[in-house]
Design a protein that fits this description.
GO terms for molecular function: nucleic acid binding. This is Tc1-like transposase DDE domain-containing protein. It comes from Araneus ventricosus. This protein starts with 6 loop residues before the first helix and ends in an 8-residue tail after the last helix. By secondary structure, the chain is mainly alpha-helical. It is built from six helices and two strands; from the N terminus they run αβαβαααα. A two-stranded parallel sheet has the order 1-2. The chain folds into two domains: 59 residues, no CATH class; 63 residues, no CATH class. The radius of gyration is 18 Å and the shape is globular. The relative contact order is 0.10. The longest helix has 24 residues.
Amino acid sequence: MIGTPDTSRADSDRYLIILYDHLHSFMSIVHSDGLGQFQQDTATPHSSRVATKWLQEHSSKFRHFHWPPKSPEMNIIEYIWDALLHADEKRSPPPRTPMDLLTALQDSWCEKPPGYLQTLVETMLRRVTALLRARGNRTRH
């Protein structure tokens, strides 16, 4: 439609600025040993032409984990968000302000058992195997 702003392009440009301004310093701080890999999902700004080109041009300075298409079940963060949001949906009364939501999310996180993250990590082999069998398409997980 003529005159309609291309928000996906704006989001891609904004993401490119974040990569340019922060990725190298972040990777050098978090992975000072040089062994870390930058990982992102396939959200539209992340997989845009400009972001993909920038990552290819700068890949000699860090390693980039290429995310399989159509595979949100491979992202442990998605499981964590889902668990936190379901816990917050059960709260009575529900969070009413952004600060209430932040406090509720923090409380939900603190209520997770100590081995919660380790359990998610240990399921990766099973999820990767299922993804390979599905040839990169969605799996049941």
